[in-house]
Each structure stands twice: as structure tokens, then as C-alpha cells.
Amino acid sequence: MLLTILLQATDITGTIVSRLGDELFSIMLLVSYAIYAERRNKAMQVKFDKYIEADRERMLTVIENNTRVMERLEDHLDKR
Fold this sequence. Notes:
Elements: H1 2-79
């Protein structure tokens, strides 16, 4: 009788440990994926920031060139 109770207690403990192990594995997998996704997001953010900065510089260059052209056009029209 005592042996049967002891075996049942061991079986329950083994089942609990097995389930906890399964849950722990799932949690570790989710945490690993979250860390990976966060790192990838940071890398994409850096690339996006570089792209935005380069685009801003190109747009400022275009604006400056257009301003110069408009000034030349105004000077030319004023000379007439």
C-alpha cells in the first residue's frame, strides 16, 4: 500500500515536472523570439533613420537648387 502511494506520488511529481518543463520550453522559445524581433526592429529603425536623413538632405538640395533657379529667373525678368 505504501509502495503504491509512493509510486503514485512519484508519477504525479513526474507529470508536474514534465508539464513545467514543457511550459518552460515554450516560455524560453517566446522570449527568444521576442529578443530576436526586438533586435531586428532596432536594425530596421537604424536603416530607416539613415534613409530618412539621406532623403531629407536630397530634398534640401533640390529646394536650394530650385531657389537659385527662381532667383536667376527673377533677375533675368527684372533686367527686361
